[in-house]
Amino acid sequence: MLSLLGECPVTLPSSDSLFELAWQEAVEHCPIRLIESVEAALRRIDPKAVPVEIGDRAEGALSRTKRFFDDRIGYYRHRRLIPPIEWSKTDPERLVQVYPHTRHLPAVIEYLRRLDSYDFEWLIASLLRLAGAEKSIATPRIGDQGIDVIAKFNASLGEARRAQLGFQLAAGPEVYVLVQCKRRTDRTVSVADLREFVGATSILRIRGSEAQSLRGAASAVAMGFKPFSAGCLAYATTSTFDNGATKLAEFLDLVTLDGEGIAQALLDFGVLPAGAGKIAPGDFTEIGKLIIESKSLGPN
Q1: Is the pLDDT of residue 168 over 60?
Q2: Which of 124, 170, 221, 229 has its CA 20 to 30 A from that of 23?
Q3: Using CA atoms, how far apart are residues 20 and 201, in angstroms rounded to an integer?
Q4: What percentage of the chain carries pLDDT values higher than 70?
Q5: β-strand 230-237 against 174-182: which pairing, if any?
Q6: CA 71 to chain CA centroid, nearest Å
Q7: pLDDT tens digit string along 198-218?
Q8: Strand duo 135-138 + 149-154: pairing
Q9: Among candidates 33, 51, 41, which has minimal Cα distance to 16?
Q10: How far is CA 59 from the centre of its chain?
Q11: With 50 as the cut, is the pLDDT of residue 134 above it?
Q12: Do 197 and 232 touch, CB atoms closer than 8 A?
């Protein structure tokens, strides 16, 4: 356990826990000053602490929290997503809302993390169709070998609706997107996770029709995929990607879509009422409709 208090006998949770809580406070209550988000996080950690103690502890953690926020905002830019919050141009210590539907993100992410793993795959298939895929299906549950969703984009059908999905579609008349989906509540996607996925898809990308014994590969081949087809690998998760996974994805030109990116897509595509003051529980039935639609299409 890491203490940020010097001589203070109180031990805080790990620094990551404090910084994450401060980030959540900033997202949910911006515009807000950084010190206020840290103080709010500390009050959640230790509700019995007196205000003076909270103030001292927040000052001690302030510089490291700011670095965490800078890294977090840079993470969004790197992945071509709109960060939910950003530093004010007039006050470098104040955070302001950037993404217009920021207030809805925590509720949408929480809903996504409660989905069944297979429902999450069908939802990703639906989002790819909304993004412009000519065809998008979830593969059979057993024997998919890491290929959970297959989508085909056809450039001749017009410009794909990109929203903030960040898909880096290759040039060419047809582009196939091979996706692995992981519904997780807390554990981040690691380098090992990405390596496992890339290894599984290499069988299809190199051997083509010879890989039809693998059901996920068979679905892609049935859709028209060939070893020389333009392709894009994507990894979707309700969690996040650690630094190693992010760097490896950049090196491999592998698209990463985390929980906040998926939540943004649902809001940008109008699946949820982004203009409302609050998303009601009944509004999430629209996500259920997308899942049911994907199920009706079925795997190849």
Answers
A1: no
A2: 124
A3: 34
A4: 78
A5: parallel
A6: 16
A7: 887 876 666 554 554 455 666
A8: antiparallel
A9: 41
A10: 31
A11: yes
A12: no
CB 243 within 8 A of CB 253: no
Question: Residue 285, class by beta-carbon neighbours within 10 Å (0-12 exposed, 13-18 middle, 19+ buried)?
Answer: exposed
pLDDT of residue 164: 47
State how far the Cα of 150 lies from the Cα of 179, in Å rounded to an integer.
6
3-class secondary-structure state, position 231:
strand
Q: Which two tokens stand for residue 68?
A: 């965490």
Size of the chain in residues = 300
Q: Note whether 17 and 41 are within 8 A (CB).
A: no
HSE (CB half, 13 Å, CA atoms) of 8?
Answer: 17
DSSP 8-state assignment for residue 55: H
For β-strands 230-237 and 255-257, DSSP reports them as: parallel
Q: What are the beta bridge partners of residue 235?
A: 180, 256
Give pLDDT tens digits for 41-83: 999 999 888 999 999 999 999 999 999 999 889 878 776 678 8
Q: How many CB atoms lie within 10 A of CB 213?
A: 10
- Report the pLDDT value the prediction gives residue 101, as an integer from 0 to 100: 87
Which sign, positive or negative, has the C-alpha torsion 102, 104, 107, 109? negative
pLDDT in tens, 226-264: 666 777 889 999 988 888 998 898 888 888 888 988 998
At the top level of CATH, which class does the domain 105-297 belong to?
Answer: alpha beta
User: What distance in Å separates the CA atoms of residue 9 and residue 122, rounded to the nearest whole number?
Assistant: 50
- State whether residue 179 is helix, strand or coil: strand
The residue assigned the tokens 């840079």 is: 74
Residue 66 is encoded by which pair of tokens?
A: 């700011």
Phi, psi for residue 94 in degrees, rounded to 5: -110, 140
Read off the tokens for 27.
């997202």
Element (DSSP H or E) covering residue 94: strand 94-97
pTM exceeding 0.85? no
